[in-house]
Structures
1.
Amino acid sequence: MSRFHHTFKAITMVSLLALGLSACENMTGPDTFERPNDKWQKRDREQGVFGEGGLTFGDDKAKRQNQNGTGIGVNAYLWRATLDTISFMPLASADPFGGVVLTDWHSPSASPNERFKLNVYILGQALRADGIRVAAFRQVKNKNNEWQVVQMDPKAITDIENAILTRARQLRTDSMTQ
């Protein structure tokens, strides 16, 4: 093969790669919804890091009344309940300010040829049923010993969300009686 053909092949491959990457530029993944902290990050960019009133020291009761004192960006009961409920799975990432908990793959000891992964999104400060969303993934090994994606039962996802909500309500009740 001539030098021209090698050069032409290389340019063609680079062009195809660039075209493929540019096609992916506007793709969105499964989590294209607005996260709770998006509006706060936008506000910080517009008003500055310290907000409208700047940096203040001392007791500013008016500002503190609108805060839960949780120190995290989402409902503290939902956050704690999420971690408690999925504690048997290995964590890949946990962001208390964005309200995102990602697990790594977990295979139950009773069924080593199947594995699960969860993405839990806490969507706000309120303890409400629509304040949490779970994305669950399941894979099973096929005949060639390769992992194959299998559709999750929607009821199983709802059951996980309900378990987290039940635990969150229990944590809130426990905190009120202390």
2.
Amino acid sequence: MSEDALKKRKDAIVDGEPEAAKEATQELLDNGVSPIDIIKGMGEAMDVVGKKYEEKEYFVPDLVMAAEAMN
């Protein structure tokens, strides 16, 4: 179950979807996933966003949306 929520949260951050990221994070917390593990996963999602930016697949608005979803 938490693997699905981890993937949902990562995808939500990469896609810049704040509400989906919030719901997935709450699901992880409800299932006892450590906040430290949640934060590590958020960093991994932002690494994906950074790579997409470097490859000119994402632009500044995409970075802002990803950051909003991570917040």
3.
Amino acid sequence: MGDRLTELLDATGVAYEIFECDPDLADTAQFCEAYGFSLGESANTIVVVGKSDPPTHAACIVLATTRLDVNKVVRTRLGVKKASFANAEATAALTGMEIGGVTPFGLPDDLAIWVDSRVMELPRIVLGGGDRSRKVLAAPEMLTAIGAEVVDELAKVVSPVVEP
């Protein structure tokens, strides 16, 4: 997706940086720890599936400090009785990308992109770069530039774990 990613990002008109990383450190927590980013600025793109015939899908972008509300908000927005996270195989089949590198740029045109409103409050976010060897650093306005719909309460804040 290398040159294609650059073309897609350039088309938004929003400044960005492509950040190269070790593919073994692409998962959010490991990436943040290894490269000095905070979980609060890391925005994960998660593919969800609505259990219907045929199945419906959406890509949801939420901060790593939150948890996607699949059982209420996503399910309701998809118009289905049951929804879940797409597994790695389904995500790859739908997006052409591996977990740890999924980006909202270059997704199929018929795939809805929803972004939690908390993401839009930040000056800069870290997103997947289309594969596990890079990330995209940019202002969140880049997401609305590609047509992502901002959704209030798409995710819930995760209470921090207090260690004894």
